[in-house]
Design a protein that fits this description.
single chain, mainly alpha, 0% strand, Tetracycline Repressor, domain 2
Length: 194
């Protein structure tokens, strides 16, 4: 499910899109057929023309999130090209700095703590993301243990940065994360001072 401005979406896609918005705003309990029908401007009965039940909608939402946050991100990164470090950074930006995907991703992480099926989906997505990091870091680092450690740190910084409330000694969060990316991706450091 691509989120394109001006693109025509099928009514089924509208249900999924509104479900993902509700999930991002309030978690899985906020995904209620009546509320979504009102947002879409249709009757609740129209829902059953596309989905057997609420669980079918939740599965379709997870399918859409998985496809959009892995396949579509990776396809775009490959299409736009660049060296491996640029590709890794672009993948992170498309996912963890994206006003649309980030809130959904964070809501799914929270949901996965209480639902093993969702946790398995998240594990699959995170494994694909980690594999991209391993491939990238493996282009300049040959030690398998270091590749894994750098990949883990990069992924933790991408996710954890959204939960951290600490100050950074006069530096912005963006400056610190940029410097961390330079270190993890073994890039020449740019000026990160305030």
């Amino acid at each position: 499910m691509r989120h394109l401005v001006g693109a025509t979406r099928t009514p089924r896609d509208r249900w999924i899109e509104e479900g993902l918005r509700a999930l991002a705003d309030g978690g899985p309990d906020a995904v209620r057929v009546e509320v979504l029908a009102k947002r879409i401007g249709v009757t609740k009965g129209g829902f059953y023309g596309y989905f057997a039940d609420r669980d079918a909608l939740l599965d379709a939402m997870l399918d859409a999130w998985e496809r959009e946050s892995t396949d579509e991100v990776i396809d775009r990164v490959e299409r736009e090209g660049g060296d491996p470090k640029t590709k890794a950074q672009r993948a992170g930006m498309l996912t963890f700095s994206n006003d649309r995907l980030l809130p959904i991703d964070l809501a799914i992480r929270d949901w996965a703590r209480r639902d093993e099926t969702v946790a398995e989906r998240l594990r699959r997505v995170d494994n694909r993301r980690m594999e991209l990091l391993r491939e990238t870091i493996g282009t300049f680092c040959s030690d398998a243990d270091e590749v894994e450690a750098r990949s883990l740190l990069a992924f933790c910084a991408a996710i954890g940065g959204h939960y951290l409330a600490a100050d950074h000694g006069g530096r912005t969060r963006a400056q610190v994360l940029s410097h961390a990316a330079d270190l993890l991706l073994n890039r020449p450091s740019t000026d990160h001072s305030p």
